[in-house]
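Hey team,

Filing this mostly as a record. A colleague (T.K.) asked me to run one chain through the structure pipeline before their review meeting, and I want the input and output archived in the tracker in case anyone asks later how it was produced. No errors, nothing strange. Just documentation.

Input sequence:
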Amino acid sequence: MSKNLVIISCEVFEIELKELAQSRPHILGMEMIDWGLHEEPKKMPAALQAKVAEVEEKHPSLDAIVLGYGICSRGTEGVTASRVPIVIPRAHDCITVLLGSKERYAEYVAKNPGTYWYSPGWNKHHLAPGKGRYDKLRQKYVDQFGEEDADYLMEQEQAWFSHYNRATYVHLTIGASEADRDYTRQCADFLGWQYDEQQGDPKLLTDLIDANWDDERFLIVPPGQKIRFTADERIVEAV
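Output structure:
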């Protein structure tokens, strides 16, 4: 018997989850959270907690809440539900979910440590490193501080990007487009990075929303317990 689920997710997964949910009537609803919380991760737990409480109250037939997140700079740490379990992938971030496993993510990053990731949802909701980001941010600094200070601040911004040398576009086919690939290539060219593309694996995401939850890949957090970062291969635990 299928479990009645509600998805609470970063909008980075909006494209993929909306398509996958169409054929899954056991998904009672989806709540998308602004990706911008990743820039202020200390605010993320409170936002997620409020949404969990709202979902529990709104859906009396709910069996579980699934999170379309990883630990995400500890932004999901401390989140708890009062009535139903919360299920979260054992993942550091959305790229692990798109690649299909934390092992594949670790292997790729070990071989390519200077990787900055792009994806359909990330490109849609986030102004990624590239010419568009550079021009917009520089104009903002010019308006606030003037030309000379803007140039200095942009030098600091670009210095941060010097830690990277590769733009990798990862996708599950869903939402992928030539325009998206071209955008990522243009960003790479502007920054002097290499371009790569990785076909993701949807299994981690589909198993999350189909309630195929094994302990190796998912954490099931009982009601009243909280998500906690472990800093080991488990990534998260319930306490």
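Quick notes for T.K.: The longest strand covers residues 27-33. The CA atoms of residues 178 and 238 lie 41 Å apart.
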